[in-house]
Amino acid sequence: IALPSLRLLYLLDELNNPLITLKSIGHQWYWSYEYSDFNNVEFDSYMTQFNNNNNFRLLDVDNRIVLPMNNQIRILVTATDVIHSWTIPALGVKIDANPGRLNQTSFFINRPGIFFGQCSEICGANHSFMPIVIESILI
């Protein structure tokens, strides 16, 4: 059993070299982000409380994630309190954030724009108020 398993683990290993690593930390009920490649730039992202013509109700945040397009992006996801789920449907990314565990996935953004997502895990009474916004820019 060990030899076929080791072979599969070797073949499933990701060999891509990401340009940026983003760490996402789920809290009740907001997200924290760290750009660890750039002198540990850290910020919190809360849902905006007001509604005007320039943003989407319950989907816009005060601090957006800014990522370059046409580059491989690695994201590390964890949580501090309960299980959350970091989801961006337009990019095909969904990964669970578990307390005490560091999950990893990667994605590729091939067009500029603004991508919206939310916590898709029932993590408490206000779990629907944990939006995620990625702004993809051309470098």
UniProtKB/TrEMBL annotation:
Catalytic activity, EC: 7.1.1.9
Reactions that this protein is recorded to catalyse: 4 Fe(II)-[cytochrome c] + O2 + 8 H(+)(in) = 4 Fe(III)-[cytochrome c] + 2 H2O + 4 H(+)(out)
Main subcellular localisation: mitochondrion
Top-rank taxon, per record: Eukaryota
Gene Ontology BP, a term: ATP synthesis coupled electron transport
InterPro entries named among the record's database cross-references: CcO_II, CcO_II-like_C, CcO_II_C, Copper_CuA, Cupredoxin, Cyt_c_oxidase_su2_TM_dom, Cyt_c_oxidase_su2_TM_sf
Gene Ontology molecular functions: copper ion binding; cytochrome-c oxidase activity
Cytochrome oxidase subunit II copper A binding domain location: 17-139
One Pfam family in the UniProt entry: COX2
EC class of the enzyme, as a word: translocase
CDD domains: CcO_II_C
Membrane topology label: Multi-pass membrane protein
Oligomer status and interactors: Component of the cytochrome c oxidase (complex IV, CIV), a multisubunit enzyme composed of a catalytic core of 3 subunits and several supernumerary subunits. The complex exists as a monomer or a dimer and forms supercomplexes (SCs) in the inner mitochondrial membrane with ubiquinol-cytochrome c oxidoreductase (cytochrome b-c1 complex, complex III, CIII).
Protein family according to the UniProt entry: Belongs to the cytochrome c oxidase subunit 2 family.
Name this protein carries in UniProt: Cytochrome c oxidase subunit 2
Gene giving rise to this polypeptide: COII
